[in-house]
Design a protein that fits this description.
The chain is an alpha+beta fold. The chain has one domain: Multidrug-efflux Transporter Regulator, Chain: A, Domain 2, CATH 1.10.1660. The chain has eight helices and six strands. The chain has a three-stranded antiparallel sheet with strand order 1-3-2. Strands 5-4-6 form a three-stranded antiparallel sheet. Strand 4 and strand 5 form a beta hairpin. The longest helix has 15 residues. The protein is globular and about 50 Å long. The two termini are about 20 Å apart.
Amino acid sequence: MIQQITGFTRQETIQLTNCTSSRIAYLEKMELIIPTRYGAIGGKPTVIFSYGQLLGIQAIRELRLEDVPLPTVKRLITFLENASYADISKDKLLIAMNDDIFWTQKDWSDFANNMPKSLKKASKENKNISWYILIVIPMGDIIDEIFNTAKKINFQDFQQRITC
């Protein structure tokens, strides 16, 4: 039985993310993006990236421009790779507050419900909160960039392949 491979090849990933092959190799070496490999017995494996990894590659570029520390980038990318297609939405922001990572609506309407319990507890007890680092990733911008590139290069079955 032949296994159905879903996702994007290295070449497609390069096209969709406007990232160089050497940059993707670097991201693999740093274990930020780890694609799936198929058929490595005695030959060159097929390397497949998921939709979450495509978004991750785009997010890494933005995060590194903002000098976000590498361990935080790794946690964010792992969170993004493990998110379901239903979780990933143009109407959401990906939020990192120190060690906590979560989704919130773009209008911040559910932020209070989703923020870390440790922060809620400290505020309720009127304890001094020293400081939190808040990182906001606007998923709509990242999703739009990939979709616009797919449209520009006339990527035929893009929509079907991201929902698999």
